[in-house]
């Protein structure tokens, strides 16, 4: 029986290994983590992450060929293949702070593998890492190896949170990079055999190590760039009376461009896009490519612009001040169908409104008050370290309340900001919401989930990203 051990039971390690266990009954999979609480949650009925379909997969194989454990050394020792799926956040201090990937967790994982291994192993980079990381890891392993043979593979993960299980069941591609030596090729084949249990052969791409590592950074940069492109156009739509949905539809009909990932919004979030682009920018600068670095940096600049533009629109529409006004925020997660708030645009929007002394009432179906308060209290990039590794109990932000009900959040509010595209926000009773709000009642839709015409008929003053402006907003000073 092939034995797999995965270091890191997070958003990637947990779901990926659960699907491998489900699809490969003859493989034993053990997911290990330094967080006792996270492992306990994986072994309970309340999994540590919310992901549609995940509960089912875990229930089918946990205790059969899928195990979650904190006995890291034991399970690395027994494994043939060791996946490393630890966090690779942005460095917060020292050389490259605010840009370079922090490989502290990765390096300590590699040293642990070298320490406890007593037989040959294939070590798989599952985390997103800077190109050439495998070389550094190889050095750590080989110099501490005590004669054991390690083969390093790069097998970046392309799943998207919210659709992780579907993405893992039916991936566009699986990418495996390895050394072009006979041993390297053998290791690539061994990992390929695992995926071949359910992924068609023509979707399993094999490349050299550096192409695989760089492909993941490039893919995230391309995806984020599409969002920043449509968001940049959304600003021009508002200025001219064009409708970004119509423009995006017409643009996306071109088969060279395609329709996906062209929805304008308050900005992209999530743990990966910004950190991976920053890492790419840093690598370009280190390789003497300042023009390439600056090209990708602008993708983040536009994203930041989109978030501050949204805040400015809220404040300027409401007579240039939100001081002491109640603003309801619907949605805090960085996208629908996840409880993940890492780098969610809601953090910057809330901080912007708090800067203008607003009182904020937040509702998200999957995010707890504790998480929201922590996110709003943390400094930039500190969020990027796992919850259990973050400083505990930051002081709660007093002007923020969190409720478990959209109607409660919006009661008595002067304005509503929709910041996550949860399906339930399309079906809310907006007549009831309107009746319980202060007048004039404003709604700022950062995800284009509501129909502006319908809500204007109810009486709302509506702002929707990239849509022709409400007559009210046209008369307000243009500060965006
Ligand atoms: P995460 O923060 O949810 O999970 C990482 C886990 O690794 C944490 O539970 C942490 O305690 C654990 N860990 C850290 N050091 C460890 C060690 N030495 N031994 C054992 N466990 C250790 O992170 P997430 O989101 O799963 O991301 C992991 C990697 O995958 C990152 O490099 C990320 O960029 C990449 N990735 C993330 C995607 C996502 O959608 N979240 C998608 C594709 C790639």
Which small-molecule species are bound to the chains here? 1,4-dihydronicotinamide adenine dinucleotide
What CATH architecture of the largest domain do you see?
3-Layer(aba) Sandwich
User: Mean of residue pLDDT?
Assistant: 95
CATH fold topology of the largest domain: Rossmann fold
Contiguous low-pLDDT stretches (5 residues minimum) are none
Which class do the helix and strand fractions yield? Answer: alpha/beta
Report helical residue fraction: 40-55%
Number of helices: 18
CATH superfamily annotation of the largest domain: NAD(P)-binding Rossmann-like Domain
Give the beta-strand count.
14
Strand order of the largest sheet: 3-2-1-4-5-6-7-8
CATH C-level name of the largest domain: Alpha Beta
Could you walk me through the main structural features you see in this protein, from its secondary elements to its overall organization?
The protein is of the alpha/beta class and 480 residues long. The chain contains 18 helices and 14 strands. The chain is 42% helix and 14% strand. It has an eight-stranded mixed β-sheet, sandwiched between helices. Strands 11-10-9-12-13-14 form a six-stranded parallel β-sheet, sandwiched between helices. Helix 9 (209-240) runs parallel beside helix 12 and helix 12 (290-317) packs across helix 13 (345-355). 1,4-dihydronicotinamide adenine dinucleotide (NAI) is lined by residues 7-13, 32-35, 38, 72, 85-88, 105, 108-109, 127-128, 157, 159, 161, 271-272, 386.
SSE diagram, text form:
Layout: E1 2-7, H1 13-23, E2 27-32, H2 36-42, H3 54-61, E3 66-69, H4 72-78, E4 81-84, H5 104-116, E5 121-125, H6 133-143, E6 150-154, H7 164-169, E7 174-178, H8 182-195, E8 204-208, H9 209-240, H10 244-252, H11 273-286, H12 290-317, E9 326-330, H13 345-355, E10 359-363, H14 369-377, E11 400-403, H15 406-410, E12 415-418, H16 430-435, E13 442-445, H17 452-458, E14 461-464, H18 471-474
Parallel strand pairs: 1-2, 1-4, 2-3, 4-5, 5-6, 7-8, 9-10, 9-12, 10-11, 12-13, 13-14
Antiparallel strand pairs: 6-7
Helix pairs in contact: 1-3, 5-6, 9-11, 9-12, 11-12, 12-13
The site of 1,4-dihydronicotinamide adenine dinucleotide has 28 residues, from α5.
